[in-house]
Amino acid sequence: MTFGSGAMTNSIAEIGEAQVILVSGSNTTETHPQIARRIYEGVDRGARLIVIDPRRTRLARHAHIHLQIRPGTDIPLLNGMMRCILDENLVDDLFVEMRTENFLALRDMLYRVDIAQCATLCGVDEEQLRLAARSYARAQRSVICYCLGVTQHVCGTANVRSYANLAMLTGHVEQEFTGVDPLRGQSNVQGACDMGALPGVLSGYQPVSDPSVRARFERAWRVELPTTPGLTVLDMTHGDGSSDDAGVRALYVMGENPALSDPDLGRVRATLAGLDFLVVADLFLTETARLADVVFPAASFAEKSGTITNSERRVQLMRQAIDPVGSSWPDHRIIIELSRRLGYAMNYQSPAEIMEEICMLTPIYGGMYHDRLDNGEGLQWPCPDRRHGSTQYLHKYSFTRGRGRFEPAGHVPPAEAAEEEFPYILVTGRVYHQYHTGTMTRRSDLANREYSRPLIEVHPDDARKLHLRSGLAARVVSRRGSCVFTVRVSERVAAGHLFATFHFAEAPVNLLTGSASDPVARCPEYKVCAVRIEREA
Amino acid sequence: MHRTLILQKDHLLPLLRKLRKDNRVIAPVRNRFGDTFFTEIEDFDNAAIDLDQQPQTSLKSFFLPQSETLCRYVTGKHPESGALEYSFHAQVPVRTPTVYFGVRSCDLFAVMYTDLVFRRARERDIYYDRRRSDAVFISIGCARPFADCFCNATRSGPFLDMGFDLQLTDLGDRWFVQIGRPRGVRLIEEWPAFFTLASEADRKAQFQVELEARGLFRRHVHVDLAVKLLQEQPDHAAVFAELSRRCQDCGGCAYICPTCICFNIADLRLDEDGGERVRTWDACTFAGFTRMTGDCNPVDGETGRVRKRFLHKLLHDVQKHGRPSCVGCGRCVNMCFGGVDIIRCIEMLAAEGENGSGGRW
After folding, report:
1. Which of A35, A345, A535, B151 would disulfide-bridge B328, Cβ 3.0–4.6 Å?
2. Maximum separation of any 2 CA atoms in chain B, in Å
3. Among A58, A376, A446, whose Cβ lies nearest the Cβ of B248?
């Protein structure tokens, strides 16, 4: 929104050449090992590593500066850093003048910021904050990598904007070895977004509200398209489920497991149970699929052809390696057949033919034909036509939206704060050996052996206070529900914080999390929820 | 008999085609994405045999598959007592004579090492043994070592004196052929028309290639020094602590290593009536490899696990088999995203030996 494009501005390999690498809200070694490879590479070449994370992750242990902030205090931290940059004349004036707008609003806001107050609010050392700001601003090539620790907050959008502000203020965008890089999670989450699996856009982020965009798609599909954005996942799964509800009556869920992954699970399950009709397409009978009226067995990545788009906007061809197992079908075949029976005959002979239509209707994918992707490396979008090669980094001479816009943001406290009844802050996340709701990894013997039980990380000081030891069972209670975990005493979390993963159906941590979400992206606040923890008999 | 022969390069493919009639032929083949793997060749006209790149994986999976069903089991009721009863049905691999062509010395040496474990005297692993006794190796001496190779330091290459059936040396327009095990002799006897006797000049040329190859290694890895240092004092706490800071216990190093052959056996229930007993690769860098009931772990913490892996390679196997079990293929160098590879370990040990201080990254 600040730059005009929702993807990594730069390429993964560039991270290794940066002089300062700022990683925020990302447990990179566990969740993005191949990006961690580049970060290590950079550090070995002498880059300074700054990690902003409430947890002491493996990467934080390697950091030159680890800012162990309280969850949900990114904005005050960044405002403090930017104030420091302003005070010390480290602003890239030329860049701000030539390429951005609304700087004065940011500057006026920053003049009201007190660095010491920010540091106190974030729970970090003021001198460390200043050091981080100086290192980031002074280097020629500074890159920011962020992940869900930044976005899964009630102020997720404002958090991202603040990181963008920091990058623009110091001119660390639109060049090689710089940029603001969101690390995408699932192998094809970037591709799904690119293809318009978002409520307000068609493929390639073309807004559904734009009549000329709609006209183009309507001509291709020979149907009339709705003019208003659809619902976000949160809106779909948090209806009240009653039949007089004007909301969702039927759901078709593909490869997703909201009955375990969505926040405030109690409500999600009620909504799913209250639906008139639920269809699920997945590899295995997931928690969601068990609630379904119809389950389509879907083919896995190895059993189908198509493309996968990764974090750095690289569209890669994926080829079928084995025949579909059992009676499973690739997703596109399921959709085509479903559509035919619903009275709209889709006629595609192959994934390559579907890709041709994508190329025709999606400017950023304009030249991504299968025959061109068959080069072992794929292509990075934007690639508007057949003659166009890969785009290594975005915003080279101007931002997608013209000028980069500064969007000053003030501190937005998390929806829930620690209080007497719920004195601890629970942060949720992932571990190396499990993947999301475990649909696949919980079925892999070895991965499951490595991390087999729902654990909760407790700081040693808190453990002492609560009389908890590693291996004991503990019940964690929030306003919405409770779960039992096995305690792991660990200094990876700060005192007063707890950490659990959402991989385990036997302790669905999302029974605890709340559905408060970012007003723009509607991304729920998975990272902060007030709980209490007690020893389970 | 130690005859040496010449095989003209033009005649190689025709020879492989002949061998294909009675054998599976496995060779390094470059796939359409530019990656080279050992692959079974069925269509010689369209397979890109690639002898210029190191195959990305070794031969390990051909003898010890990453996942292998050892037997199936069926549950039933005992006819008289009615008690639950298991019956097991072994899934022994069918005999398939196989020619492994284009095997590099390090990978062949690794197979000889794994023999020590799986085919020791009468204690033979029947699954491994079947595949192994069906194998014929046509290896290639490395005239040009690859970027991370150090088989000169582990004495498992670039050329071998034994273990191969035939060993080829590239002499430009022709292959110089050395005959090793009896199957190599049989192969020559079966297809004599492909080979001519090597001349004295050929032998000299081969000697020259072998000599030059030893000087072409870009990596100088002090394996012997590291072994000696570990024998003197196996602790080296600072080195292993430093190394393990970057180990994410993903097991990649063990999976890619041609001599890492630890495995796990698990029973997978497939339906109400039975299931499979499956053997899968395992790795000592996994915490679960040594974890016991009640979360007790005798090899505890990341440092302990990393240390165990490197000590196994460089110390325990020296004590047991008289030589380190690293064959110097260098594959773990590219595999590990944290850079926790055996070269780094050896370099850090050597640096520590030199200046007495803890190794640094």
Report:
1. B151
2. 79
3. A58
B278 touches chain A (CB under 8 A): yes
Q: Indicate the residue of A37, A62, A450 with minimum beta-carbon distance to B288.
A: A450
The rounded distance, in Å, linking the Cα atoms of A189 and A148 is: 13
How far apart are the C-alpha atoms of B267 and A253, rounded to whole Å?
32
Question: Does A56 contact B at CB distance below 8 Å?
Answer: no
- Does the domain formed by A12-183 have CATH 3.40.228.10? yes
Q: SS3 for A162?
A: helix
Mean pLDDT taken over chain A: 91
- Decide: A487 and A476 in contact? Cβ < 8 Å: no
Query: Which of helix, strand or coil describes residue A275?
Result: coil
**pLDDT, tens only, B7-42:** 999 999 999 999 999 999 999 999 877 889 999 999
Residue B81, min C-alpha distance to chain A (Å): 34
CA distance B101 to B107: 12
User: What would the DSSP string read from start to end of A282-318?
Assistant: ESS--TTGGG-SEEEEBP-GGG--EEEE-TTSEEEEE
Q: Are B299 and B290 within 8 A, CB to CB?
A: yes
Helix, strand, or coil (residue B315): helix
Domain-by-domain residue ranges, chain B? 4-64+96-214, 223-354
How far is the CA of B159 from the CAs of A162, B103, B109, B122, B139, in angstroms? 60, 11, 10, 30, 9
pLDDT tens for each residue of B40-93? 999 888 888 999 999 999 999 999 999 999 999 999 888 888 888 889 999 999
CATH class of the domain defined by A189-380: alpha beta
| 8 Å CB contact of A36 and B361 | no
Distance CA B289, CA B263 (A): 9
Distance from C-alpha of A445 to C-alpha of A447, rounded to nearest angstrom: 6
- Kindly report the pTM of this predicted structure: 0.89
| Fold designation for A424-535 | Barwin-like endoglucanases (2.40.40)
Residue B74 has φ and ψ, to the nearest 5°, of: -125, 135
CA dist A363 and A381 (Å) reads 9
**Ranges in chain A annotated CATH 3.40.50.740:** 189-380
Contact A315, A328 (CB under 8 A): no
Q: Which of B37, B69, B244, B246 to mutate to test the interface with A (most CBs of A within 10 A)?
A: B246
Q: Edge-to-edge, what's the strand order for the sheet holding A179-182?
A: A65-67, A48-52, A20-24, A142-146, A179-182
pLDDT of residue B264: 92
Q: B361 touching A, CB under 8 A?
A: yes
- pLDDT, position B296: 86
Stated length of chain A: 537
Interface of A with B in 464-523 (CB under 8 A): 470-471
CA dihedral A40, A44, A47, A48 (to 10 degrees): 70
Chain B residue nearest residue A44, CA to CA = B361
Q: Which residues in chain A are contacts of B287 at CB distance < 8 A? A: 450
- Give the CA angle between residues A452, A453, A457 to the nearest 5°: 125
- Interface predicted TM-score (ipTM) of this complex, two decimals: 0.85
Inter-chain residue contact B294 with A471, CB threshold 8 Å? yes
> What string of H, E and C letters represents the secondary structure of A402-425?
ECEECCCCCCCCCCCCCCCCCCEE
Rounded Cα gap, residues A59 and A147, in angstroms: 14
B245, B278, B288 ranked by CB distance to A61: nearest: B245
B250 part of contact set with chain A, CB < 8 Å: yes
Q: Within B21-99, where are the H helices?
A: 60-63
- Rounded to a whole number of angstroms, the distance from the CA of B286 to the nearest CA of chain A is 7
Distance CA A53, CA A59 (A): 10
